[in-house]
Design brief:
The chain has 374 residues and is of the alpha+beta class. The protein is built from twelve helices and 13 strands. Strands 3-4-8-7 form a four-stranded antiparallel sheet, with helices on one face. Helix 4 runs antiparallel to helix 5, helix 5 packs across helix 8 and helix 9 crosses helix 12. The model has no long low-confidence stretch (mean pLDDT 95).
Length: 374
């Protein structure tokens, strides 16, 4: 049981987190009649019902040593020691965050070590990043007894997996998410057990969905506790404003997902790429490519979702303007491929779209070569 921060009882500070912790213990411990000492709710409010329950408990098990007044529970004193001793074996590690009234159960160190190790050896996360995430898991457990773990799809995602995640869950297309390069994790609270006000337990998921419905400020406090550790030195990760579970290696304010992808495509693909514009309303980057042509001109080819699906927006006229070089027919004589000349055929347009898609496929295979670009 977590040690009280301050005393609880008549004339004491009675901070809601301390009162809630005492109430939870009195709710879980059965008295001589087999009923819990506390008949009221775990609500963090000190009043006659809580005071009466403390009085009965102290009458049965003794109060704090003199000169502590009756009905007062001091941090680590005799009454709290007895409360901790008499808790059920599977409920002994009662915890609460400062300022909150939702009491939860701390988890074993072995759970935190296992979760950290799973991240530390994940080959699909960048080594330096995964080490910091694993350190976060262990630091969070040391501070609060909570265990963080990745969601089933919360590590690296392939471009194909990213294409299946639609707005508003994610506005990043294939190749635009830090998840695509092992630079991001979705790290939540799966398996966290907390007490409802009537003393019944709730086992939550990664997103704390049940706690969010029950008492949103308590869920927010848990996320804030995670981020207080995650976002500061020595761990120094970054989060997104619109996706609470997400943590990443690079600051979105100083790293451009679009320009980073264009540079990565150029580095691992066959052609040269750049961004053409950002559509703020749709939250979409649009891209341009030189098609490996002879003129050096970049032509608009669409969004990542369009290109990945083989539906790049490039037109016959744009292909011609880029000086795209039509490949020699398979099985033909060796030699330099022929430059495209009008008219550009529908088959040529399809071939260009397939080549653009192939560069994205190469970027997916070569994800470990990605580097951040401002």
């Amino acid at each position: 049981m977590q040690t009280l921060a301050q005393a609880v009882g008549p004339g004491q500070s009675n901070a809601r987190h301390d009162v809630a912790l005492v109430q939870a213990a009195l709710k879980l411990i059965g008295g001589p009649q087999g009923r819990p000492y506390l008949g009221g709710r775990i609500d963090g409010g000190y009043g006659p019902i809580t005071e009466g329950a403390i009085g009965v408990f102290q009458a049965d098990h003794g109060g704090d040593a003199a000169p502590i007044a009756p009905l007062v529970i001091t941090p680590g004193g005799n009454t709290q020691t007895n409360l901790a001793r008499l808790l059920p074996a599977d409920r002994r590690d009662l915890r609460v965050l400062q300022g909150q009234r939702v009491v939860y159960l701390g988890r074993p160190t072995s759970d935190a070590n296992a979760a950290a190790q799973a991240i530390r050896v994940d080959p699909n996360l960048r080594p330096a990043f995964r080490a910091r995430v694993a350190d976060l898991v262990q630091a969070m457990h040391r501070a609060h007894g909570l265990v963080l773990s990745m969601t089933p799809n919360g590590g690296r995602r392939t471009f194909a997996e990213q294409a299946l995640i639609l707005p508003p869950r994610s506005y990043a297309g294939p190749g635009e998410s830090n998840h695509n390069y092992g630079n991001a994790v979705d790290l939540g609270f799966n398996g966290t057990v907390w007490l409802q006000q009537d003393g019944h337990v709730e086992t939550d998921n990664h997103w704390l969905s049940a706690l969010e419905r029950h008492e949103a400020p308590a869920a927010t406090a848990m996320w804030d506790a995670r981020d207080t550790i995650a976002l500061r030195a020595p761990i120094g990760l970054f989060r997104l404003r619109f996706e609470r579970i997400h943590l990443q290696e690079f600051d979105q304010a100083t790293t451009s997902s679009g320009r980073s992808l264009a540079a990565h495509l150029t580095a691992v693909g066959a052609w040269n790429w750049q961004t053409s514009r950002y559509d703020r309303a749709a939250r979409d980057w649009h891209y341009a490519c030189d098609l490996g042509g002879t003129t050096g001109a970049f032509v608009a080819v669409g969004t990542t979702n369009q290109i990945w699906a083989g539906n790049a927006t490039v037109t016959a006229a744009e292909i011609q303007s880029a000086g795209w070089v039509r490949p020699a027919p398979l099985g033909g004589p060796p030699g330099t491929p022929r430059a495209a000349t009008p008219p550009i055929t529908p088959a040529d347009v399809a071939a260009v779209r397939a080549s653009l898609q192939a560069d994205f496929q190469a970027a997916d295979r070569g994800w470990a070569r990605w580097a951040p670009v401002p």
